Amino acid sequence: MPSGWKATYKLTPAWYLQGGAFEDDYDRAVRNGWNFGDKDATGAQILGEAGYRTGIM
């Protein structure tokens, strides 16, 4: 179960940039409670996107 963050920045009403980083910890699904530490992390996913939104209202 990944945990992480995402951010979006609007350049104009139509153009945007967004990105995020998410921690991989496949053992988290078998543990109970909230643990926001990265001690048991098995990797990370880093994503980015630029987009143009059509049909703006």
Provide a descriptive summary of the structure in words:
- The protein is mostly beta strands.
- It has strands spanning 3-10, 15-24, 43-52.
- It has one domain.
- Helix content is 0%, strand content 49%.
- A 3-stranded antiparallel sheet has the order 1-2-3, with no helix packed on it.
- Strand 1 (3-10) and strand 2 (15-24) form a beta hairpin.
- It is elongated, with a radius of gyration of 16 Å.
- The termini are far apart.
- The model has no long low-confidence stretch (mean pLDDT 79).
Amino- and carboxy-terminal Cα gap = 36 Å
Q: Which word captures the global form?
A: elongated
Would you tell me the structural class of the helices and strands? mainly beta
Mean pLDDT across all residues, rounded? Answer: 79
Q: Main beta sheet, described?
A: 3 strands, antiparallel
Q: Helical region count?
A: 0
Q: Please report the total strand number as a whole number.
A: 3
Q: Can you tell me the number of structural domains?
A: 1
Helix fraction? under 10%
Topology at a glance:
Layout: E1 3-10, E2 15-24, E3 43-52
Antiparallel strand pairs: 1-2, 2-3
Provide keyphrases for this structure.
mainly beta; single chain; 3 strands; 3-stranded antiparallel sheet; 49% strand; elongated; 57 residues
Summarize the structure.
With 57 residues, the protein is mainly β. Helices cover 0% and strands 49% of the residues. It contains no helices and 3 strands.
